[in-house]
Amino acid sequence: MDKAKPHAIPRGMYGEAFKRVKANGGIAGVDGQTIQEFEEDLDNNLYKLWNRMSSGSYFPKPVLRVNIPKPDGGVRPLGVPTVTDRVAQTVVKMCLEPELEKQFHPDSYGYRPGRSAVEAVGVARKRCWRHDWVFDLDIKGFFDSIDHELMMRAVRKHTEEKWVLLYIERWLTAPVMVEDGRCEERGKGTPQGGVISPLLANLFLHYAFDMWMKGNQPDIPFERYADDVICHCKSEAQAKWLLSLVEKRLAFCRLELNREKTNIVYCMDDNRRGDYPICKFDFLGFTFRPRRAKNKQGKYFVSFLPAVSNKAAKAMRQYIRRWRLHLRSDGRPGPYDKPCYSRLAELLRLLLQVGPVPCLPTF
């Protein structure tokens, strides 16, 4: 640490930050530099980045926009920062995340250390048994709609480090380079795909939703994974009432509720046989709906349970089909068939991404 620098940033953080960036992988940004190329002159590159950030002269490069096809035919725009910017964002994240983790709501599960989608699904499963109705809400273009003024106001509540505030603001306003090479200015939003974006998104919704629910609707439990939220209600009337309140709250925070993807769901099972048109919802790669289950005595009944969604199952089938196992002519794989075990490991990683299947009753 150099006391002569305007911003006192420990140099040791940069080596650890690069290790995390390398572990996450990813493609090159607008400068075309890959992680391997950055590593070839690692010490010099990390020193230059530390020197620029400590002196206040670091400015991020434009974010490369990559459009990822969605199953419904649309595209999801992802922002790819350069490797240098990813390291810089990781340094800020390492500084800010421990403080924010102390404040986050216990029912916030997305992109947090020690939390997972499986945990959120397990909690949602139990609460669906105790509550008859689910309010499944969707925020329209959340990452692209985050208001910068409100975002910086939230960040300032948790840090007084000037360099952290300076660089978060610069990342928020960094231009985006589209496919034809043009740079577009951004007045709102944070690129989905940046290292710091999930942490900032969690912080924004911590105040826009989590704390608002805790203060105004403490008796209504919910699970939130980034911008994917479900709330558990006791009646249809309560769910509709909550929908109107949440819509007003999101509008106050300069966000918009996606009415087309927002639903009120009835948790139908053997004990809840009411007639309602919507009796299922998707959450983190699982479809919750009435399913056949077996109790401890071996008797079958209908329960409201999660299982892998059709969309996630299709992704798994397509992934396995790429192995071209039907073209194998050497019989079944032996116990030491390393390629086979390698592919099974890849499938396991895919399962963890789309949402691992928790231990559920047979159905």
How would you describe this structure to a colleague?
- It is built from twelve helices and eleven strands.
- The radius of gyration is 23 Å and the shape is globular.
SSE string, helices as H and strands as E:
HHHEEHHEHHHEEHEEHEEEEHH
Task: Please tell me the overall pLDDT.
Answer: 88
State the major sheet.
4 strands, mixed
Q: Count of DSSP helices?
A: 12
Strand order of the largest sheet: 2-1-4-5
C-alpha termini separation:
59 Å
Helix content, binned percent? 40-55%
Shape: globular
Compute the number of strand runs: 11
Radius of gyration: 23 Å
Poorly predicted sequence stretches spanning 5 or more consecutive residues: 354-363
Query: What class would the helix/strand composition place it in?
Result: alpha+beta
Strand content: 15-25%
Q: Which keywords apply here?
A:
alpha+beta, 4-stranded antiparallel beta sheet, 12 helices, globular, disordered C terminus
Outline of the structure:
43% of the residues lie in helices and 16% in strands.
What is this structure's SSE topology?
Blueprint: H1 12-24, H2 35-40, H3 42-55, E1 63-69, E2 75-80, H4 83-101, H5 117-130, E3 133-138, H6 142-145, H7 148-156, H8 162-173, E4 176-177, E5 183-184, H9 197-216, E6 222-225, E7 228-233, H10 236-252, E8 263-266, E9 281-283, E10 286-294, E11 300-308, H11 310-321, H12 338-354
Parallel strand pairs: 1-4
Antiparallel strand pairs: 1-2, 3-7, 3-8, 4-5, 6-7, 9-10, 10-11
